[in-house]
Amino acid sequence: MNETATADDWVRELDARQRAMLAEMGVKVWTPAPARVPLAEPAAAAPAPVQPPARPPQAREPAARAPIVPTTPATAAPVSIAPPAPARADIAQLDWPALRDAVAGCRACSLCESRRNTVFGVGHTEADWMIVGEAPGEQEDRQGQPFVGPAGQLLDAMLRACGRDRQADDARGVFIANVLKCRPPANRNPAPEEVMQCEPFLSRQVALVKPRLIIAMGRFAVQSLLKTTEPIGRLRGRVHRYEGVPVIVTYHPAYLLRTPVDKAKAWADLCLAMDLERAG
Ligand code: URA
Question: Which residues form the Uracil-DNA glycosylase-like domain (predicted)?
């Protein structure tokens, strides 16, 4: 990373596409004098994309896997027809398909009772960037995809401003996941127990994607990854680590929709991420 790069340097380096995207994000760009260096395109030599395991879009969750309790003999042990949920330690060994199945069948906390769909995550499974959000909202719960509501539209604009795209399966790709894979009812905050139960899934996703950097968006992503209750304002602007992977902290897109004045700070955070990436 160019340690001495300033915000002005970034503003000078914006190309037309990025300016348009910043406008879409609602960030007004003040143009300093005068030289403007075009921003380099993302590296051409991308790792061969690996398609996510082919799966149909998540359908409604199967009904609760109730054990079948035989009526006779009365003393017989209950027989379960469901495969046992992997133990927390075993999740760390799962491959993509098994991890996806484990999330889809998870009943480790009460969120499974109210969800329509689990929301596993989406994107390039070998992406350089991983985005971690909080939890599915109503739209995400309906569609089984992360960040598809208004906050997701802003996230997509932010990513495009960085030359990234959730649908790209090349060097522009990202993998997007949440701390929680199920929607908390009425979009309430995740409970500590829910975060704790879901943590092995996110940890395994990070281990499988092997991103070069993680962008933690919002309080719950930050708390879950960094194990700190420090406010985002005090964590921004420097590089943290999660299981060895550099982590950039920024505001959640839903917060930015409510507090557009902080979009410029979020842009500065994305610039830090791009800096870090360029430093290799
Ligand atoms: N907010 C999140 O944190 N994640 C989503 O998937 C949607 C909204």
Answer: 120-271
| Contacting residues for 36 by C-beta, under 8 A, at least 6 apart | 12, 13, 14
Q: How far is the CA of 135 from the centre of ligand 1 (A)?
A: 5
Residue 233 makes CB contacts below 8 A (sequence gap 6+) with none
Lowest mean pLDDT among 19-23, 63-67, 78-82: 63-67
pLDDT in tens, 213-225: 999 999 999 999 9
The answer, yes or no, to whether any atom of ligand 1 lies below 6 A from the CB of 156, is no
Q: Which of 139, 140, 148, 251 to mutate to test the pocket of ligand 1 (most atoms within 8 A of CB)?
A: 140
- 155 CB within 6 A, ligand 1: no
User: Please, which residues have CB within 8 angstroms of residue 242's CB and are 6 or more apart in sequence?
Assistant: 206, 214, 216, 225, 226
Ligand 1 neighbour 224 (Cβ under 6 A): no
Q: Kindly give, in sequence order, each residue whose CB lies less than 8 Å from that of residue 226, ignoring residues fewer than 6 positions away.
A: 216, 235, 240, 242, 247, 249
Residue 5 has which token pair? 């790069």
For the 88-279 domain, the top CATH level (class) is alpha beta
Edge-to-edge, what's the strand order for the sheet holding 129-133?
A: 122-123, 174-178, 129-133, 213-217, 245-250, 240-242
Distance 49 CA to ligand 1 centre (A): 25
- Please provide the size of the chain in residues: 280
pLDDT digits (tens, 9 = 90+) for 141-192: 999 999 999 999 999 999 999 999 999 999 999 999 999 999 999 999 999 9
Q: Does the predicted TM-score (pTM) go above 0.90?
A: no
